Amino acid sequence: MLTRLADNLHRVQERIRAAARRAGRDPAEVTLVAVTKTHPVDTLLAAYELGVRHFGENRVEEALEKIPAVQSAIKNQQSEVTWHMIGHIQSRKAEQVANLFDWAHSVDSLKLAERLNRFAAQQGKQLTVLLEFNVSGEASKYGMRAPGDSELLKTIEAIGALPQLRLAGLMTLAPLGAAPESARPIFRALRELRDQLAGRFPQAEWRQLSMGMTDDFEVAIEEGATLVRVGRAIFGERRQSPNPSSPTSNL
Question: How many Å apart are CA 152 and CA 159, to the nearest integer?
Answer without folding.
Answer: 11
